[in-house]
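Hey everyone, long-time lurker, first post.

I ran two proteins through the pipeline my lab uses and got sequence/structure pairs for each. Pasting them in order. The first:
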Amino acid sequence: MNAAISLTQGPGGDGQASMQMQILILLTLLTMLPAAIVSVTPFLRITVVLHFLRQALGTQTTPSNQVLLGLALFLTILIMNPIAGEVYEKGWKPYEKGTLTGEQAFEAGSVPMKRFLLKFAREKDIQVMLEATKTPAPARPADLDLKVLLPAYVLSELKAGFQIGAILFLPFLIIDLVTASITLSVGMVQLPPAMLSAPFKILLFVLVDGWNLVVGSLVRSFYI
């Protein structure tokens, strides 16, 4: 115990304390990593759309949550791979070589991420965040702080995901309405319409190659 205390209180104590603080900060950032992946990447829009799609099909738990999350994760890696590579080349790599300090590396590495967030964050949502944080609007969009861009991007992606989900719901809703009207007109009140419409919705989705259309459209929406 005395030896441990002497390490923090002796001549090298400041360095030891600094190292412990860096480890603490690193562990804290690692715990926030899943939330960052879920919120500030295409993962957010993809999971919202896939959830709406499953609800529209009426298949309850098929595909399972694990399958949908796995698909969303792999699509997110595919979309974010060029941006992650640019962040590594501009920020992390120079920091490893010692040509940039930690703060400079963060600023350089955040440029590609800011460009991605600006591409999909709506101006209205950015304005809301600027007003909420009482931050004056910068001269250029590229000068916006991440504390403004990140929540604005989340709001914009939620809206985009709900819009796509609503469009996906419409054709399946029509099938539900037609099935319900037919069952009521012939007096089949004891049989739930959803049970009859489910096979027709699944058949329609398979015939139009729905997974290819939905996933392909989602991926292409991030390359516009």
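...and the second, right after it:
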Amino acid sequence: MRTHRTTVALGATLLAVMTLAACVQGPEMPTPTPSATRSVTPSPTPPAPSATPTADPTPEVIPFAIDCESLIDPDTMYAFDPNFSLLGTFTPDAGSLAAEAQAASGTVCRWVHGTNGVTIDVAVADLPADAASSRIAALDSAGSSVGDYGARGYFSAAGGVGQAQAFPSHYWVSIASPIFSAPGDAGVLMGDVVAALP
């Protein structure tokens, strides 16, 4: 009798414990955090090197300085016309051959007529070969070649001014004046200048 009660009581106790155990939750397990995904960002492709335009090379300049009275002897100018006298420092007219020679670091000289103010501009520049060739080609194209200057020579008129040009060796000589109307008008002076060059 006692054994039966004990068994019943034990069973009831066991059932109560099991029920209680079912109600009690175990410790909550942490939810696993997904590991951070490492994103691989492709490194930017460096831009292709741009074609840098090559700057035009600076034109070569060969300075040339000489005394104006060495280019044309005072006696030669006196024989040409005694009324012309050498002017001191002056600024060549814009766009003139003398201005171009001055820009090329050459020597420019001006004689002025004492009565009427007419001028004779003489200019000499030592040109690089390519610059001289370009200028000669342009003059050849213009058909202004003459043969009486003691060197490769040309004569033309622009704006009422006669322009004689010669290319002895590597030099470029120009003589310009309103009194020149034909190649021979500048012949004596051009001959003096060409003979004076070193």
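Reply from user beta_strand_b:
Welcome! Quick read of the second one: The helical segments are 2-23, 68-71, 74-80, 97-103, 129-142, 187-196. The first strand starts at residue 84 and ends at 86.
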